[in-house]
Amino acid sequence: MQSLRRRLVVGALAALLATGSLVMATSRAATAETRSIFDDEYVFATTRAVSHMDASPAFKATLFPVTMVLDTACLPFAVVAGLVE
C-alpha cells in the first residue's frame, strides 16, 4: 500500500512539474514579445519632471542640483522598477 501511494504521489508531482514548466515557458515567451527588456520611465524621472515644468528658469536652476542628487540616490531602485513591470 505504501509503495502504491508513493508511486501515485511521485507520478502526480512529475505531471504537475511538467505541466507547470510548459505553462511558465509559454507565458514567458508571450510576455517577452509584448514588452521591451527595459523601461526607463523611472530613471531620472524627477530631473525630467523639473525640465518639463512650467516655471521660471531661475527656479529650475535651483532645483536641478537637488533633483540630480535625489535621482542618483534612487537610481538602483529606478533600475529595478524599470526591469520589473
Blueprint (SSEs and pairs):
Blueprint: H1 2-34, H2 45-51, H3 57-73, H4 75-83
Account of the 3D structure:
The chain has helices spanning 2-34, 45-51, 57-73, 75-83. Helix 2 (45-51) packs antiparallel against helix 3. By secondary structure, it is an all-alpha fold. The model has no long low-confidence stretch (mean pLDDT 74). Helix content is 78%, strand content 0%. The longest helix has 33 residues, at 2-34. The protein is rod-shaped. The chain contains four helices and no strands.
What is the count of β-strands?
0
How big a fraction of the residues is strand? under 5%
Overall 3D shape? rod-shaped
User: How many separate helices?
Assistant: 4
- Quaternary status: single chain
Radius of gyration: 25 Å
Q: Spell out the helices and strands N to C.
A: HHHH
Largest sheet: none
Q: Portion of residues in helices?
A: over 70%
Q: Structural class, from helix and strand content?
A: mainly alpha
Low-confidence stretches are: none
Gap between N and C termini, in Å?
49 Å
Overall average residue pLDDT: 74
